[in-house]
Amino acid sequence: MSQIESPRVVSREEWTLARKAHLKNEKALTRMRDLVARERRELPWVKVEKEYIFDTPEGEKTLAELFGTNSQLVVHHFMFGPDWNAGCRSCSLEADHAEGAVVHLANHDVSYVRVSRAQLDKLVAYQRRMGWTARWVSSQGSDFNFDFQVSFAREDLEAGRFYYNYETIEDPKYFSEELPGLSVFYKDESGAVFHTYSSYARCNEEVIGAFVYLDITPKGRNENEIMDWVRRHDEYDVSPAVTTCHSG
Length: 248
Fold this sequence. Notes:
CATH topology of the domain at 48-207: Glutaredoxin
Order of helices and strands: HEEEEHEHEHHEEEEH
CATH architecture of the domain at 48-207: 3-Layer(aba) Sandwich
Radius of gyration: 21 Å
Strand order of the largest sheet: 1-10-9-4-5-6
Structural class: alpha+beta
Helix content: 25-40%
CATH class of the domain at 48-207: Alpha Beta
Shape: globular
């Protein structure tokens, strides 16, 4: 990890003046975030005409059935290819954060599901290893991942260009058969399903709270390449000590 060189140490009064100046930008960012969220909600919808079938622990389910009793559905496109032996590290970090949010989403008319192309038995085994409980289904055999631009045919990669995050990608560092994303759907009273939103790459960062915590520390994310420090939560060298308010 890098070291902080020559920090500027000042009086409390000078620090407070600098902090208040920075607060103006923080408030501006908050207002901009509200504006972006409102624009996102106002985006047009696309009706999902194709019937996608997923392999789930309860048997085959359609996209509409993944909503359960809620009218809104968030899909985490979790990178786990059919020939992989473990899920993506960065997707696992995102999944760690979602685990605590699922109960709140479910009680606010939002269902949440992870979707990967790996076989269901691989997903179940990895879920058990990670200690997760959120719903996870396999899209193997369907076009779902390809249609929502998070999985890519080998011939496209070999051609040196493919479409991701709303643009044609030609940078080899992004060449992978699986890439991350989030998609949102709405189901109306008639059962019709609409695609309302998808985000990819760094646009998904806001759902990862660890980034927010790191961004308020002096060293920040402290990385050479994006997310090069991330490990699956059972692969770190040191686990945090378990303490309680009464431990002493």
